[in-house]
Amino acid sequence: MDHKQLRSFVASAETLHFAKAAKALGVPRSTVVADVRKLEESVGAELFARDVESTQLTDAGYAFLIEARRQLDASAAAAAKSAPAPGGKAKANKGKGRAPKVKGEPLPYKKRQGR
């Protein structure tokens, strides 16, 4: 399953509001709704009971929420495990004080050419 769809579902399930979930994820609401619908199609069950007044999780939604959180936690742990260790080889400064090149300025450590 797509992790983007799982994150959209978990955020929507925690807030029970698609617009708030979209704001928390930093994406448009239509993206969250589309992700949840695709996830419902791949699961084969309705995860939300959509009503005019409110949005609630179905029994299948509650069961899938536990599994979705488990999958996201497992993928986050695997990503942290495979991340390179901090630190590394120190890079030495090359040459004599590399100054940024400014238009019209003579190059550092160069004499001006006579005319």
From TrEMBL:
Residues 91-101 have a biased composition (Basic residues). InterPro entries: LysR_HTH_N, WH-like_DNA-bd_sf, WH_DNA-bd_sf. It comes from the Bacteria. Residues 76-90 have a biased composition (Low complexity). SUPFAM superfamilies: Winged helix' DNA-binding domain. Residues 1-58 form the HTH lysR-type domain. Residues 76-115 are annotated as: Disordered. It holds the Pfam family HTH_1. Keywords: DNA-binding, Transcription, Transcription regulation. PANTHER family: HCA OPERON TRANSCRIPTIONAL ACTIVATOR HCAR, TRANSCRIPTIONAL DUAL REGULATOR HCAR-RELATED. Belongs to the LysR transcriptional regulatory family. This is Regulatory helix-turn-helix protein, lysR family. It comes from Plantibacter cousiniae.
